[in-house]
Structures are given as C-alpha cells and as structure tokens.
C-alpha cells in the first residue's frame, strides 16, 4: 500500500470514501505560522481550522512545525510531506457526521534538538505572523536558562530566543510583531507565557527595547481549545480504515465533530488570525472566561477526576466507562451534582454544556484511551479540579463525596510498584502501566511507608499530599472533612478493591 504524500493524491480521486483533497495552489502558499508541538490536539483543532480556511481561500498560509521532544514523529511528517488524514466522526445536531480530510496545513517539520538554526531563520521572514504551541501544562513554566543555547531547553526559552532573533533582525519595527496563541490547558496561558518571556529577557540581560517591542507590537492571546482528538484508532480499526482509504498514513488521526477554539483578542488579532472566519467553532472575543471555565471544569475536570477510577476499575477507554453501568453513573453524577454547581458561570448554560459533554463521551466513533488522559495527571488534577473543590466548599461547606472518591483513585493510580531507568511503573491486577507524571518520583517515595490495612498510615499519607502547596497552590487539609473523606475511600479501595467500592457507593 502506498504511503500518503503529494505524489499519490491524483490516484486517490476514486477513493471509496469521500476524501477532501488539497488543491495544488495550497502547496505554494507562504509559511505564516510557527507551531511548537506536533501532537494530535494541535493537528486536530488549530491546524484543522487553518487547513479549512486555506481551502476556502481565506488565510492562505501554511505551518512550520517544531518538534521539541525526542519522541518519534518528525520522520513521518517528512516522508509524507506534512500531509495527514483527519477522520471526523460523531453526532452534530441530531445527525451523524463523517468527514475524511487530507490536511495540508503543514509545510515542513523541524527538530529543535538538531535543527535549531533553521528554525531561528524563520524569525527573519516578513510573512511569519503567528506562533502556536501546545507543550502540555508543564510547558508554560519558568526555567532559568541561557536563551543563546542551541536550543534552549524549555519552550518559553525557545520562544524568547525566536522573538529576540526577530526583534534584532527587523530592528523592532511595528510590522514585525506577531500574534502568539498558546493552546496549553492553563488558565490565562497567554498572560503567563508573556510574563515568563519577560523574566527570561531580564535574566539574559536583553536590552529594554526588546520588551518595549513585545509590549507594543506582539500580542499574547489567552486561548481555550476544546475537541476530543484521541489520535490514531486502535490497530484493527486503523487497518480497516486505511484499507478503505487506499493508502498508508502513519499520521492519521481521529477527532469528534464538536470543536471550539476560543481566543481572547481584539480587531488586530481577528485580522491576523483571519482563519477564524472559516468555521463557527473558532471564536475571538474580548473575554473568553465563560468558555474556559465551562470547558476546563466540566469536560477536562470530569475526565481527570474519573480517569483513575475507570482505569483501576479495569476499563481502558472513555467509551467503555460510558458503557459500564456504575462508571457512567459516576461520571454523570460527579459532573451534574458536584462540578456544575461549583462552576462560576450561568448554571443553566453549564447544565446544557454538561449534557453535550456526556454525549461526546458516548461517541461510539472515538476510542479515547484512559491511559492517555493520565499524562501529567497531577498537573491536570491541580489545574482542572482544585478550584472546583474550593468553589464547592464555598457553596456547600462539606466534602464532595464523588470528587473525593475520584481523588482517592488518583492517589492509588500514582502508586508505583517499581522504578526502571528513571521510569515509574504502576500495576493494575498484575499488569504494569506507565506513570507519565513529573511527580512520579514524589509519589513513589510518599507511598513507601503506607500500609494498606493501617488507617493511620493511609491518613498520614493523604494528609502529607494534601498539605503540599507545591502541588496544589494551597493546603487542601484546611477544607473541613476533605482529608477524612479521601482517606476513608482510599482505605476502602486498598482493602476491598476499586470495583467493589464503586459499586457500593454509586447508586
């Protein structure tokens, strides 16, 4: 079977599936976007909008993608010329929707580790207008480093180096300013990224004119992304799909129909990000707080508070959870009864959105592995659920029972049984699983003195974790009854099993 690339496009015109093809003129479009990250979320949402706009003749610009990690992927982008298939499946307004798109938004991909000078050269391009990123929540953090390294190690370091290169090349001219849209799931992500760039500028003793240029001519936008993009289907489904498509695609991704990219910006941002006109799922408004809170707390928060419970219960995907009597009840009840009342937006709209989220979780076309949701589990728990817990206490002054159960399952998921070459491994019913979290070492040590049948040691462990301000930004022991609720549920899970406790407590 031939691999997807530009050369085979003419032969696919008679595909059994209704493929959406790029026209030849798209390959001649200038490179206007620098994108830090090659992940499925960027390719399934921002790059989807850019591709759609290019096909409509609106934006007319392509993406230079920067691969920042040492994970595989860039080679496939190179061999496929940046092309990849996006399969969109789900329900929209009561009807089933299926789209098969050959996305041509990506022009080329570079590795930051080995091709940093080539990446910096794009700072000299007058056609460059936009910088996008999704480096996970951990990516938007300050690291004291020399931005003159090749490359700087952190994403903000790389960004500062690129911006400084552009400032020097264009002499700080107004027209050289950029629009920067981080897509990490961090509240006020644009503001925080700009603040870190300022700290790095000071640390590296960059001239005052650089930050004056940043403040006057470069816009950092707070943004929100909302689309379930689990990536490639499981092996059997992928093989069948590729057979129907008639070609091999190592970069094929699946996504749901629902899409939202909300960007906080003004008229200049709308002018630069003209691709927002291509689809109603992209919104540019002066205040995106309601969209952010609704999505972060209801969709992402529900994912995070339920993923450990579902995985340790013995399930592997979101769909399996929604098809299980008890887990589906837990997910529905924790969202509707404990999260919705604690979200600071209009409750009626929150409940409507919650119902939409449940429908999205039930989408039979999307296979969303739970283990993928556990990536940087601790950071996600902090960003998505801690404020919800605090809000719940402010409203009800008692421990949220279902959130407490989900938090207890999170703590158990973070229990590594062994460490191998710097990697931490948990165990579910005798089968190992990876703990892909920057705090894995912390929890490995914290779990050592815990004895599963000793209520005192379990309570001390929970108390220690909840008290850690570096994890949560606050001492969660100060919430009346929260420690006791989690410790009781964790002790029950340790001695009875996750499935037994869930079936006892979920009605």
UniProtKB/TrEMBL annotation:
Boundaries of every Mannitol dehydrogenase N-terminal domain copy: 32-269
- Which is one Gene Ontology cellular component term of this protein? cytosol
Q: Which organism is it from?
A: Rhodocytophaga rosea
Q: One matching Pfam family, short form? A: Mannitol_dh_C
Q: What is this protein called?
A: Tagaturonate reductase
Q: Which domain of life is it from?
A: Bacteria
Residues in a coiled coil are: none
Q: Which Gene3D superfamilies did the record assign?
A: N-(1-d-carboxylethyl)-l-norvaline Dehydrogenase, domain 2, NAD(P)-binding Rossmann-like Domain
Q: Which InterPro entries match?
A: 6-PGluconate_DH-like_C_sf, 6PGD_dom2, Mannitol_DH, Mannitol_DH_C, Mannitol_DH_N, NAD(P)-bd_dom_sf
- Ranges for domain Mannitol dehydrogenase C-terminal: 287-493
Q: Which GO terms describe its biological process?
A: D-galacturonate catabolic process; mannitol catabolic process
Q: Which keywords accompany this UniProt record? A: NAD, Oxidoreductase
Q: Name one GO molecular function term.
A: tagaturonate reductase activity
* PANTHER family referenced in this protein's UniProt entry, alphabetically: ALTRONATE OXIDOREDUCTASE-RELATED (PTHR30524:SF0), MANNITOL-1-PHOSPHATE 5-DEHYDROGENASE (PTHR30524)
